[in-house]
């Protein structure tokens, strides 16, 4: 056992596997000195750090998270490494937003429901605040989706998984368009734009806002063209009048079907007040230059009076984590 490995074993114990990603396995763990439950991402390394090194995405995630200290961004607590592995230790949050939306569905009913109004406003404000904090530090998340948004037992929302995040550059540089999970991908990415900014995150925020309001994804496409069509069927087919750069994008086709736009009240079953519908429509504008920024969204009527410290209890989550923290390290 190496000195680093022994140090890791002395500090944390592994409890169970939570999931597996492209670069390694995520475990639930426990700090041996405090009994605090943590999440440990174990990164696979090659035999020699000198020849292969740490994956670039992991280096980016570490460097960015060290700059992002905010109540609505998951906290990186520690980094432990030796010659064969790298361990990222995060605060532990039991449930993601997808799990929470599933949790609140009525038992025995096939009808999906959204988050109750007061809780919805709190979660939307927290999400917008976390993303705005990142953007103010010139960081694009580029993969905002329910699985990458965590919810604590006290109703605190945390942005997570910054593996695809990038620093914004000025002037704008060319980025890959193969980012953001399909259902939450902005139209400029679907139409092939290689230069984009924080508006791609704002679109994702709008999609998740709608999903939280109804319990149902707003644009659940099966392929890129299906995703484009689903957006058009609800927002209407875009025109050069509403989006001047549209016809210059690589994947735009002038022969796309023509659909009229639907009222936003019909997209959310009229569950949102007028101020909420205005915010949603502002986040889901086709033209990224006209799309509302997350910083400006915080000042809208729907969010400006929400107490930033307001949270709500989710007993089933709180109880599970509390019981585990009371266990001895063993």
TrEMBL record:
May form a complex composed of at least the catalytic subunit CRK2 and a cyclin. Keywords: ATP-binding, Kinase, Nucleotide-binding, Serine/threonine-protein kinase, Transferase. This is Cyclin-dependent kinase 2 homolog. ATP binds at residue 42. One of its GO terms (cellular component) is cytoplasm. The lineage of its organism: Eukaryota, Sar, Stramenopiles, Ochrophyta, Bolidophyceae. GO terms for molecular function: ATP binding; cyclin binding; cyclin-dependent protein serine/threonine kinase activity. Transmembrane segments: none annotated. Belongs to the protein kinase superfamily. CMGC Ser/Thr protein kinase family. CDC2/CDKX subfamily.
């Amino acid at each position: 056992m190496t000195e680093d490995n022994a140090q890791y074993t002395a500090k944390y114990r592994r409890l169970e596997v939570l999931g597996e990603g492209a670069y390694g396995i995520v475990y639930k763990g426990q700090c041996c000195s405090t009994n605090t439950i943590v999440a440990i991402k174990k990164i696979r390394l090659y035999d020699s750090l000198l020849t292969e090194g740490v994956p670039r995405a992991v280096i980016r995630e570490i460097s960015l998270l060290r700059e992002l200290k905010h109540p609505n961004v998951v906290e990186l607590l520690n980094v432990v490494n030796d010659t064969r592995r790298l361990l990222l230790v995060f605060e532990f949050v039991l449930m993601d937003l997808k799990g929470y939306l599933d949790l609140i569905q009525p038992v025995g009913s096939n009808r999906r429901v959204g988050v109750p109004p007061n809780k919805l406003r709190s979660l939307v404000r927290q999400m917008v605040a976390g993303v705005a904090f990142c953007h103010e530090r010139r960081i694009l998340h580029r993969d905002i989706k329910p699985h990458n948004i965590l919810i604590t037992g006290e109703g605190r929302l945390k942005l997570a998984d910054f593996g695809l995040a990038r620093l914004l550059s000025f002037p704008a540089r060319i980025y890959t368009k193969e980012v953001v999970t399909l259902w939450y991908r902005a139209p400029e990415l679907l139409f092939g734009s290689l230069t984009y900014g924080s508006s791609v995150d704002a679109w994702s925020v709008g999609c998740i806002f709608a999903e939280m309001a109804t319990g149902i994804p707003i644009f659940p496409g099966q392929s890129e063209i299906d995703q484009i069509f689903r957006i058009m069927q609800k927002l209407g087919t875009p025109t050069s009048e509403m989006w001047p750069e549209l016809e210059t994008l690589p994947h735009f086709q002038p022969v796309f079907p023509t659909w009229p736009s639907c009222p936003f009240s019909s997209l959310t079953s009229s569950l949102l007040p007028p101020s909420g519908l205005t915010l949603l429509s502002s986040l889901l504008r086709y033209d990224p230059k006209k799309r509302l920024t997350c910083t400006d969204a915080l000042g809208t009527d729907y969010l400006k009076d929400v107490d930033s410290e307001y949270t709500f209890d989710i007993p089933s989550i709180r109880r599970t984590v509390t019981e585990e923290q009371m266990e001895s390290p063993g």
